[in-house]
Protein: HAD family hydrolase
Organism: Actinocatenispora comari
Amino acid sequence: MSDLVTPAALLLDFGGVLVQTTTRPDWRLRLAEHVHRLLTTAGGTELTVEQVAADIGAGAAADSHWKDAMSRPAAPAEMTQRFFWAELVAADWPDAARTVVATESAALCRRMGELRQERANRPGIERLLGLARDRSIPVAVVSNALCGVVHRDHLAATGLAELIAVQVYSDEIGVRKPNPALIEHAARALSVPTGAVWYVGDTYDRDVVCGHRAGAGATILMRSRSTDSCPYEPRFAPDAVVDDPDALRALLTATDSVH
């Protein structure tokens, strides 16, 4: 940690760093009811709400396994919203029903994001972002997301968006961490060298690997509920490990002023 210097920019993951999430137990049923109404309006009557809910659950499980697998390739692409709905959820549905969810996939991913999780800002994140503002260190969000709009909505609603210069989400640029292109994209948007940023995430297989591949000036691991669920033995070590945003703020305060 003693070798760390003040970054030219601070790049933060969304889930696990900016916010902490809690999954709602009834999200599949609520989403299935929404999807079933769409199908019924379009003239579909073959599927029940319970069947739709079961397939949404199966699609979410397949998506989770796919995400683990995609932390291995050197430059993984992001899954499209259309693929999630037409292939992972509705693969065995009648053609007309598959067409409905494929056509409405962007809106359905947004609704799924809204229903699936409760989001709360991690304690201390406002203080961290305030310190970055006071020290003229621009901040970017760099996050995997099937629907980044949901993240943008949360940041706008909680006022954090005013303290963030750039937001980069995998669904919007078509690649996902650990593809280093996400970090490189954010650094370019901030007009700073990739080697001069701190990248902060909460997972080894996606975030620490991504920071290493991108050649970030420092890769910081912020511990969360997801940190110890790495599907593979970590290949790379972070430059520092912190428990929460206040610990990251203390680490930032302790660095040199040299960029």
Remarks:
- Residues 49-69 form the longest helix (21 residues).
- The mean pLDDT is 96.
- The CA atoms of residues 69 and 237 lie 20 Å apart.
